[in-house]
Amino acid sequence: MTAKATLRSAGFLALVAIIVIISVFPLYYAVVTSFKSGAALFEVDYLPAALDWSNYRAVFREQPFGRNILNSVMVATGVVLAGLALSVTASFALARIPFRGRTLLLMTLLAVAMFPQVAVLSGLFELVRTLGLYNSLGSLGLSYMIFTLPFTTWVLTAFMRDLPGELEEAAIMDGARPLTIVVRVFLPLMGPALAATGLLAFIAAWNEFLFALTFTLTHDQRTVPVAIALISGASQYELPWGQVMAASVAVTVPLVLMVLVFQRRIVAGLTTGAIKG
Q1: Is the dihedral angle over the CA atoms 201, 250, 248, 43 positive or is it negative?
Q2: What pLDDT shows up at residue 265?
């Protein structure tokens, strides 16, 4: 290896190290801070002096944080399951069935996904109130579908378009109906795409704040982001940073581990529809 190639490789590794440090350090320091309390919160330490679990105990004792986590899990899981079920059938129609206006419909889906949440907040609030879903998890499931369904449909359409047409033709010759083709022929081949879109939609629903703050009122109906934002101290001027960090770590670390476990499927699912061999 020449000196120029060695220098280029060292520069690349240094750049990767810098990116990793910048990305990981905030989470690491949040973990360190979550084990501090009192005046120690304002001391800069890069290693925890002791593992003080009082902040974690306080988070679950002083508010229904366990219930908030369960709410987030139920809403995000329901949104992912319903979104994938609708997206698979919609992507089959958009990718395999020629009809007038198909491209315009895809562009409309992309435009809806790019719309800011605040632009539809007032109208969606009226819809939620009319349906009697205010202060319930149903309102969150309905509203979260607005920004997850276009994304999952768009990604699965790109994946579905690249599946071999011979499989569909053979199934049609055997007398299979469209739903049978989707469920028994295409669905088993869409594992990477389903894992990628499902996980990203789960993270988006898990982290959503604006709709959760607007459509829920009581503590037992709130999700994790709102519960963390509403953590308060002994007075309105005091914010218990240790508890905030503990709550943030408790709900972030499982997501990070989930992404690390499924990272290969995420990359495969997002790139399969964009690469043609």
Answers
A1: negative
A2: 67
Q: What is the pLDDT of residues 138-188, one digit of tens each?
A: 999 999 988 888 888 988 888 888 888 888 888 888 888 888 888 888 888
CATH code given to domain 63-272: 1.10.3720.10
Give the model's pLDDT for residue 274. Answer: 46
With pLDDT > 90 as the criterion, what percentage of the chain qualifies? 25
The pTM of the full predicted model, rounded to 2 decimals, is 0.83
> What average pLDDT is seen over the chain?
84
Q: Where are the domains of the chain?
A: 3-42, 63-272
